[in-house]
Amino acid sequence: MEEKSLAEIQREVDRYISQFKEGYFSPLAMLARMSEEVGELAREVNHTYGEKPKKTSEADNSIELELGDILFITICFANSLGINLTEAHDKVMHKFNTRDADRWTRIDTE
Fold first, then answer.
1. pLDDT band for position 60 (cuts 50, 70, 90)
2. Of 47, 50, 51, which Cα lies nearest the Cα of 59?
3. Cβ count near 19 (within 10 Å)
4. Is the pLDDT of residue 37 over 70?
5. Model-level pTM?
6. Sign of dihedral through CA atoms 65, 75, 41, 105?
7. Which pLDDT value is given to residue 46?
8. Rounded Cα gap, residues 33 and 89, in angstroms
9. pLDDT of 110 strictly over 70
10. What does the CA dihedral 37, 41, 47, 52 come to, rounded to 10 degrees?
């Protein structure tokens, strides 16, 4: 599968959403949806790495699919507010590379 840039992914999601009259949900509705998806991810992580095994009647979801759902709603949220996620990522990385430059123990590269 060919890798896509974040900008391409944002455009792909926008093309998908734009085909429906309803368009993007309101920011509050998207935040609620994102919270739901994070809860579903937590459940999958707990089933995989925690002490709570899945019931035989439960759907066979995966951490990968739940992360995909979170990515999709994040992109919808950004698109609806006109946020370029590549720029947002660059700003966050700048923050981490400056503010947190000495926060963690670096791996020695000799």
1. confident
2. 47
3. 8
4. yes
5. 0.86
6. positive
7. 92
8. 22
9. no
10. -60
Burial-class residue 56 by CB neighbours within 10 Å (0-12, 13-18, 19+).
exposed
3-state helix, strand, coil in the chain (%, to 5): 65, 0, 35
Look-up of token digits 């950004």: 78
Taking the C-alpha atoms of residue 19 and residue 4, their distance in angstroms, rounded to an integer, is 21
- Burial profile 25-47: b = 16 or more Cβ within 10 angstroms, e = fewer: beeeebeebbeebeebbebbeeb
**Residue appearing with tokens 């949806």:** 33
Read off the pLDDT of residues 81-104 as tens digits, 9 standing for 90 and up. 999 999 999 999 999 999 887 888
Q: In this structure, is the dihedral angle defined by the CA atoms of residues 52, 56, 40 and 79, taken in order, positive or negative?
A: positive
In this structure, the chain runs to a length of 110
